[in-house]
Specification:
521 residues; alpha/beta; 8-stranded mixed beta sheet; 16 helices
Length: 521
């Protein structure tokens, strides 16, 4: 392998910060360095980048050109990193798809993104077999291959592992809109080298205590299709750390991996913290967590008692951030949070503003919609939504917050109707749309109710259609019905049956009254 990439000793935007070397360069400069460990097997940077370059050449051989799309329906594994690295050095967009989505939801994203290549683990291929054959030119499975599909092994069996050309590509993550319909967040692809995108990431890692280029061990225990754990672990891989991958989150397995592998960093959501804290005292005491240097968390508000307990256990290594698929808004250290409980950090002046109901910038102490500076992007195929999310140089994902007099930011709400359960977003309209297709449902409203484990649980308030009773048989029928329509994390955990449904004269549902009903159960 003879990939040649440029390397600078410092980030030109931040001269005091060493540049992030990039996985591509590490494959050339330090090929025996461990890159990925999964199921006890290690893949070195040299082996990883050899596969990445073969994949890049395959994309070129197929005729893919700058701005084309590769979609992945992938379980946690090295393939996510191989495909992401190949796309981002080949001028392509990589779309990771939520593996928990129902088949129609997966089909929508594949078609909407206009993917030229779809790569799926065999265990997930039934979500797309026969659904997208007319839309995607090249279908690839990891594992057994159905008729008409190529195997990943043969697809990447390219003799030349030196890419002919290299240019900057990008991840294109999908995020739900206010109607629940997913939208691709697409960033422009400047004419630049792949390494040019690593500077800001290196600055962020240095800020939270992960100096670029230094050795470390990062644990992936969340699904890599999600923007936060996937993109974060990819950046940390670029920094030269070894990535340890678990198939999913199991509290005891996570704690054992941290202890046995001297893990130095990881990314979790508050639900994960609670599950770790719920482990038996003997299991917790017997684990060595002293190696942990940075424990990132986001995705949902963290209950103060949970966060204090984690800091007491792991030490002041927790770093919280406020962000979304559109960008990162604020970052907060453990020390800052202990001094200002509930804050998500103190953004740099000019990096984040609050816009009040009057459309003007909110003063300290006043509530306002959070707008933050982010790299340019568009919501694929939706210029109106793109424009609505902008305010000058700033963008918003709809969160509401306030500043205190010291400039610390506090999040007051996560969009008016959005439900955050286990660190993932659920939009009521999508769940309501699925339930309204059942003949037993005359009207329905979905809300989030506080839950000690999940942060919020999804609750459906159902007005019965004539001839139906709100009994266990109907609950079972509704559960089966939505199971076929939407992803598991979106399905209601509780059903409340009512005769009168709270809608206004204008036809709008009163979610405040729905929450009163749900909280009263």
């Amino acid at each position: 392998m003879s990939t040649v990439v440029n390397s600078e000793r410092a980030d030109p935007q931040h001269p005091s910060v060493p540049s992030t070397p990039g996985a591509w360069l590490l494959g050339q400069r330090d090929p025996t360095r461990p890159a990925i460990v999964i199921d006890g097997k290690t893949k070195t940077f040299g082996e990883l980048i050899s596969k990445v370059n073969q994949l890049s050449n395959k994309f070129m051989e197929l005729g893919l050109s700058r701005g084309d799309v590769v979609a992945g329906l992938l379980l946690n594994g090295s393939e996510y990193y191989e495909i992401a690295l190949a796309c981002t050095q080949s001028g392509l967009y990589f779309v990771p798809i939520n593996t928990h989505l129902a088949a129609p939801e997966v089909e929508y994203i594949v078609r909407n993104s206009n993917a030229s290549v779809l790569i799926a683990h065999a265990e997930l291929a039934d979500k797309v077999i026969g659904r997208v054959d007319d839309a995607v030119q090249h279908l690839v499975t990891i594992g057994s291959s159905p008729a008409g599909w190529s195997s990943y092994e043969s697809f990447t069996d390219v003799s030349d592992d030196t890419p002919a050309t290299r240019s900057l590509g990008s991840l294109m993550m999908y995020t739900s809109g206010t109607t629940g319909r997913p939208k691709g967040v697409r960033r422009p692809l400047p004419d630049a080298t792949p390494e040019s995108s690593l500077g800001p990431g290196g600055q962020l890692l240095a800020t939270i205590g992960i100096p670029p280029g230094q050795p470390g061990r990062h644990l992936v225990c969340s699904p890599v299709y999600h923007a936060a754990p996937g993109a974060t672990s990819l950046l940390i891989l670029h920094s030269g750390h070894t990535i340890y991958i678990l198939p999913s989150f199991n509290a005891e397995d996570v704690l054992r991996s941290i202890s046995d592998n001297a893990i130095t960093s990881s990314h979790m959501v508050p639900t994960h913290f609670q599950r770790l804290l719920d482990l038996p005292a003997g299991v917790r005491v017997g684990a060595d967590v002293s190696s942990m240097q940075v424990l990132l968390h986001a995705g949902a508000p963290c209950p103060p008692a949970t966060k204090r307990a984690m800091i007491d256990w792991f030490g002041p290594v927790l770093w919280e951030y406020l962000g979304s698929t559109e960008g990162r808004a604020a970052t907060c250290s453990s020390q800052e949070w202990l001094e200002h409980p509930g804050t998500v950090g103190r953004p740099d002046p000019g990096a984040l503003v609050l816009r009040g109901l009057d459309g003007e910038q909110a003063a300290p102490g006043e509530e306002g919609t959070i707008y933050f500076k982010a790299s340019p992007f568009e919501y694929l195929g939706d210029p109106e939504k793109t424009a609505a999310a902008r305010w000058g140089d700033f963008t918003t994902s709809g969160d509401v917050g306030r500043f205190d007099d010291d400039g610390y930011l506090y999040v007051l709400d996560r969009r008016a109707d959005l439900i955050l359960t286990g660190g993932v977003n659920v939009y009521p309209a999508e769940v309501e749309g699925a339930l309204l297709q059942h003949p037993g449902v005359n009207d329905v409203g979905v809300v989030g109710v506080a839950d000690p484990e999940w942060g919020q649980k999804v609750v459906a308030v159902v007005q019965l259609a004539s001839g139906f009773n709100g009994d266990d048989d109907l609950r079972t029928a509704l559960e089966q019905h939505v199971r076929e329509q939407i992803a598991g994390f979106k399905r209601p955990r509780e059903y409340i049956f009512v005769e009168d449904f709270p809608r206004s004269a204008a036809g709008k549902v009163s979610r405040a009254k729905l929450r009163e009903l749900a909280d009263g159960q």
